[in-house]
Amino acid sequence: MSDHIKITKAVGTWSVRAGGAVLGESSNALELAEGDYPPVIYFPRGDIAMAFLDRTDHTSHCPHKGDAVYYSVVTKSRTLENAVWSYEAPKEAMARIKDHLAFYPLDEITVEQI
Known about the structure:
Elements: E1 5-9, E2 14-18, E3 21-26, E4 30-34, E5 40-44, E6 53-62, E7 66-74, E8 79-86, E9 100-103, E10 109-113
Antiparallel strand pairs: 1-4, 2-3, 2-10, 4-5, 5-9, 6-7, 7-8, 8-9
């Protein structure tokens, strides 16, 4: 694993909401800390209501984690484009985040410890 990336079990139970709907809740979330960036909570895919997410064609590449795929969140009032990402085949050193989803900290998305 890259020395500047640390993956640990997120303490407690975490929830993610968008557009007034609870998208998921997990006591098995992971916290990824990378350099000076704020920590990111990664939710196990099985703890997220995937019916609210639509996969997009957008991708990105991180030299440390690998290739990310993106999802949009569909709420009652709007679609939050590319608001969620996942490393479906991460680099070996990042294998813990496979099958996990992370959410951008947008005004319409709330990730919090409950």
